[in-house]
TrEMBL record:
Any single Pfam family the record assigns to this protein: DUF211
Signal peptide segment: none
PANTHER family in the record: DUF211 DOMAIN-CONTAINING PROTEIN (PTHR42240)
Descriptive protein name: DUF211 domain-containing protein
Domain of life: Bacteria
Species whose genome carries this gene: Solemya pervernicosa gill symbiont
Segments forming a coiled coil: none
InterPro entries xrefs: DUF211 (IPR003831), MTH889-like_dom_sf (IPR023129)
């Protein structure tokens, strides 16, 4: 068994929702999620983001759904940290 404890994602989203609301939507998925968002690039219609999520057991599918529900798209998974468990 293993648990995803950290991911860094490349995400493209429209200007709305703003970055604060976008981060809150992802953080709300898990009880212990820490979400850091860095705006990499801004153009007329979109923002390119680096989204870092840390938690004891990240539900990646739920994160991906939250990204889509906020009008954004996942471009790539750039970093993953996974820990094995004895459970």
């Amino acid at each position: 068994m293993s648990r995803v404890q950290r991911v860094i994602l490349d995400v493209l989203k429209p200007h709305q929702p703003n970055v604060l609301d976008f981060a809150r939507a992802i953080a709300a998925i898990g009880d212990d999620y820490r979400v850091d968002v860095r705006v990499i690039e801004v153009d007329e219609n979109t923002e390119t983001l680096q989204v870092e999520i840390e938690g004891s057991d990240i539900d990646f599918e739920a994160v991906n759904v939250a990204i889509s529900e906020n009008g954004a798209s996942l471009h790539s998974i750039d970093v993953v940290s996974v820990a094995s468990t004895t459970e």
